[in-house]
From TrEMBL:
The gene is 100639313. It comes from the Eukaryota. It comes from Amphimedon queenslandica (Sponge). Keywords: Autophagy, Repeat, WD repeat. Belongs to the WD repeat PROPPIN family. Pfam families: PROPPIN. The keyword Transmembrane helix does not apply. Signal peptide: none annotated. InterPro entries: PROPPIN, WD40/YVTN_repeat-like_dom_sf, WD40_repeat_dom_sf, WD40_rpt. This is WD repeat domain phosphoinositide-interacting protein 4. One of its GO terms (cellular component) is cytoplasm. GO terms for biological process: autophagy. SUPFAM superfamilies: WD40 repeat-like.
Amino acid sequence: MSRRKLLSLSLSKGHNCFSCGLESGLVVYNVQPLARLLKLDFETVGGVGHVEMLQRSNLIVFVGGGQAPKFPLHQVMIWDDFLKKFVYEIAFPTPVLSLRLRKNKLIVVLQSSIHVFSFPNPVEKLLTIPTQTNPKGLCEVCTSVDCQLMIYPGPQTGSIQITDLLTIEDPGRASTERLVQAHQHEVVCMTLNQSGTLLASASSKGTLVRVHNTQTRVLLVEFRRGADPANISCINFSQDSAFLCVSSDKGTVHVFAVQDQSLNRKSTLAQVGIGQLSKTVGTYVDSQWDCAQFALPSEIPSLCFFTLDTKSVIGKFISI
């Protein structure tokens, strides 16, 4: 067994650090400049399958994983790096598939339910949401002060549920449950922009990325990654929502312009009217293609995102 094997990778919502779950423990890195911020070794935490850091704080939330976990896969552990000790643990009936954190909430995703806790003081369960079977543990939450939208797969194939977590804190607040029928196939990847106004998603087909308005549920734009199927592993907006980056197991990262869509490429066939031959051909020819792309060293899943302090289209890319 290689204890250097990477089991999971998570990005802070500020895009300024990322956390690695390893067979040998966990490590948190700063993005710019690239530097290690924190390391917990195998003796302390064992193998780590999922890990999240509360912004750039001393609190680390993780779940065991890999071939030699020290803690059960159904138990969430909370480590305080200032106190250098575990301060809380939460057990569940089934394995934890993913974790999400925002300033005042911890979200734990199981295969058929999502559990929302107040966090970090105190850690108390606020809500349990039954879901359709969610084997990938798909769930995202907006970290904006003014928005607490959470998204996860909906009841119908290709749908995405939008839930406003502010309704938990204010029972008098009108419910804002919304359902977006985003795709015909199973949703495999989704993300929110920083303000929670835009939702981008991709299906198991992997050829298209669609962007919806979270308030109106209207489809705003559709981007074409390629013609052949792919497993899309990551989608992220830039901090200003001007661009969107997408990576897959094809070893290529695509960048799309969300605001100034004239920057995106279109098929040369669209200029000669070929797209009007049929609805199917027309949809393909009239698609918006990336405005930039580049290849990764190998065809493996990857995490892509934009850095904070640069106008460059792409920030850092870390292979999983």
